[in-house]
Specification:
With 264 residues, the chain is an alpha/beta fold. It has 11 helices and 8 strands.
Length: 264
């Protein structure tokens, strides 16, 4: 029995090591400090053996083009702090509007600077990956954003070859409040903005709880629904070489994303 002042002398042990809980892939995510939804979404979608590592980026809760642009200042540092011993296969920045305001290439370069071992990504890249995989040409877009952000997002999608038939925003400025919009409201919102000619519906923003109602919207409209977190996670899985068909989160997970798989 140990008594105060005694020395501790451990026996010689030979621990047995294995590949750990997350032996298939490790995915790292740089979340906003105000995001109440994405981490739960990613954990819900993660297949067995796939890690979800997350860190938080200092964020102004008032979401404008100006505040989004400042996210880049700490991007490399955030990437460097994401389990460097585990070396995630993919590290992705979790902000749709921020990805667009800053620019995909600049985001990827900063993540690569902080974590050169990981494939860098962001939500905007994941959304493009998913839309291309589904061969979408025409779409409608629903967001929680102010219209100054909606305008930039519409320009971004148009510049990447998509026809934006309608862009509707809820004009919410608080990042925290975006996560408080009920999934049932998002379902009804998506169905209302849908148009007959649209190939898909895109619900933009990592803070929205839209993954909860993806399949309900798909069943009601008969067309694929893309959400920020769902598209980003699907893309990250494929870029890490994981082709599992995750159930309950929309048609995109039926697609293997062959073009995104690592080249060996």
């Amino acid at each position: 029995m140990f008594k105060s002042g005694d020395k501790v002398a451990s026996k010689k042990w030979a621990p047995i090591f294995d590949k750990g809980r997350h032996h298939r892939a490790r995915l790292g995510f740089i979340l906003l400090s105000t995001d109440p939804s994405a981490e739960s979404d990613f954990n819900a979608m993660a297949p067995e053996g796939v890690a979800v590592y997350a860190t938080r980026l200092e964020t102004d809760d008032h979401t404008t083009n100006a505040t989004l642009a400042r996210h880049i200042e700490h991007m490399a540092n955030a990437a460097a702090r994401l389990q460097p011993e585990g070396k995630p296969d993919v590290i992705s920045y979790v902000c749709t509007s921020g990805s667009i305001v800053i620019g995909i290439e600049r985001v990827l370069a900063e993540i690569k600077k902080g974590a050169p071992w990981a494939v860098p990504s962001c939500i905007a890249q994941g959304v493009l990956d998913a839309l291309h995989e589904l061969a979408v040409k025409k779409l409608v877009v629903g967001t929680p954003y102010l219209d100054e952000i909606n305008a930039l997002e519409a320009e971004f999608l148009t510049a990447h070859g998509f026809d934006v038939l309608d862009m509707q925003g809820l004009n919410i400025a608080s990042g925290w409040d975006m996560g408080l919009v009920s999934p049932q409201y998002l379902r009804d919102f998506a169905i209302e903005i849908d148009q007959p000619d649209a190939d898909a519906i895109f619900l933009s923003c990592s803070g929205l709880r839209s993954v909860d109602v993806v399949e309900e919207i798909e069943q009601a409209t008969g067309k694929p629904v893309i959400t920020s977190n769902q598209a980003q996670f699907w893309s990250a899985l494929r870029r890490a070489g994981i082709t599992d068909e995750v159930q309950g989160f929309g048609q995109i997970f039926k697609h293997k994303g062959v073009a995104l798989l690592p080249k060996h």
